[in-house]
Write the structure tokens for this entry.
Amino acid sequence: MEKMGSMNRRNLFAMIGAAAGASVMYDAMTSMGFAAESKYAGPVKLQGDPKGASVLILGAGVAGMTAALELRNAGYKVQILEYNDRAGGRTWSLRGGDRYTELGGAAQTCEFDKDLYLNAGPWRIPYHHRALLDYCRRLGVVLEPFIQVNYNAYIHSSQHFGGKPKRFREVQADFHGHIAELLAKTTAQGRLEQAVSKEDTEILLTALKQWGALDNSYSYKESIGSSARRGYDKPPGGGLSSTPIPSKPIALGDLLQTGLWQTLSSGQEFDWQSSIFQPVGGMDMIAKGFEKHVGHLIRYNAKVTAIGQDSHGVTVNYVDARKGAAPEQVRADWCLCTIPLSVLNQIEMTVGTPMANAISAVPYASAVKTGLQFKRRFWEQDEAIYGGITFTDLPICQISYPSTSYGSSGKGVLLGSFTAAAGNFGFNATGAYEFTGMPPAERVKKAVEYGALIHPQYREEFENGISVAWHRVRSNLGCFGVWSDTARAEHYKNLCAIDGRILLAGEHASELPGWQEGGILSALDAITRLHQRIVAA
Amino acid sequence: MKTNEAITGRFGLALLGMLLAIGLAPVLASDVGASMNGPSTFPQQDGAALFQAICQGCHQANAQGAVGAAAYPALARNIKLASAAYPVYTVLQGRKGMPPLASYLSDAQIAAVVNYVRTHFGNEYADTVSPEMVKTARESH
């Protein structure tokens, strides 16, 4: 039997979800505070007079711009300092003509055709991210469905089936079918009598037959019935050649040993269930939406070097991020800092030990995305794959097909690699770290080489690519904060508490790490507490 | 039905084991999602190859580090490497924003990469780290 890598949390969920169903997995996730719905009760209401108070916001990502928008509306004097020359932070899309220089100095120019893009950071918005969805509505950001689960995309093991990928529908139908058969036969033998009443046994058998596409003898096997789930060798047609030919299921042992079951639950998890969305035209439409309202408050290319406070206010030193000229200083009554902890832990800061320790307690995930442009949308034209994700055990981990412009005869951009890892979390850690260590051109080359093992068309159709390794992003030094249970128990409240005149926000100050929703909710929570303190004074 | 019975029994136990294990696993949610479980340990055994696979992503191929909004320290000519325990502990547990690597690397791999960095890039520390020393460090945290 092929030895799989050590079981991690995602795989646990995947297997529980695949084997026991979404409800058991959901219970398991909820018991860990993992799947709680976003707590958003509509637009924040900051009532009362801020008495002319000023707030300096550090970072113009979604957290910082949310805070700026709401504080300004409530009557505060607001300024924002931003390291990059653009707004949005990790809410970032790369398009043709964009030039991107990473840590270490390697520069890339994106050569995508007009209207094609790569979402380098977040790329999906779950239906229950109510705060972000509300801001999209308020900011006029138009959404479209993101295809998370595509039954016709692939699950691929480089080590099995001769390296030939299987369709998601085949793997799911066969896994459910075999499990249903096992359970039905066990049930029929009366071996579940303690767990299931006599009346329920009949219902369970009926349910298993339906759920698993079993035949009348509770078997899952090659038939028109099972092919109606997994697809046919020859699908039903018209005229004289219309008779369908059923396909042969994959054996249970092969499914278990190859690990193909591992990704079946991807669309069942609360965070990736349908409906799930993306902004039309790129995730940075959200950044641009905020920027329309607060862009005039932002000072770009400002590298913060020190954050001080005394009993009267805060003083922040910064230098020009491009030229590093003489430091400048901004004073304000309060400071809301959304700088990622991976950066903030190196900035001189006048805060107490509890907050300082919290800032240093969170490692940042390694994550790499590579966008590849092809001459034509062969995945649609040749393979009938419209949006969705192919999963593979290769170091690229995922290929995601664009959830937009279906059937376009022009060029197309795929997400050609997406890896992420940190600490005990992640899938294919070696992919995330090794890709980060490569020069960008090498990442693109590898993404093409690996992807061609799944889609041989890559070799003919590839044109150009761009790659973002988050540990090499100058403004971030990592993808998102990875809290361990022990670090969260010890430090999270100290990270979120107001320290004198300074408080923090961002995905790192939320229970939704790596999600824009976490950044927005943390900002709303922080400014609500700050406002209460100011109006009460 | 013998095969099926055997599989059912084994499967039930495995599932129970996983449900129990979940309570002990670290919490994380993010816009990353499920994927095929590729290799979760690095295949490289040699110090130079491990440096290239892991360290140079941040500390750069020449070990000079890099500066952006904040900095990755240079490992080249780094006096903090004088005490071998410091890099061993850092690789195992991480440091500030640097992720821990204990779960991806064996004791021998950590010894190899620490020994490599401590004898290259202008570092000339004569004492060698053994896998046993890494094992002791791993168990003491």
Q: What stands out?
A: Residues 1-17, 19-35 of chain A have pLDDT under 50 and may be disordered. The first helix of chain A runs from residue 9 to 20. Chain A has 17 helices and 24 strands.
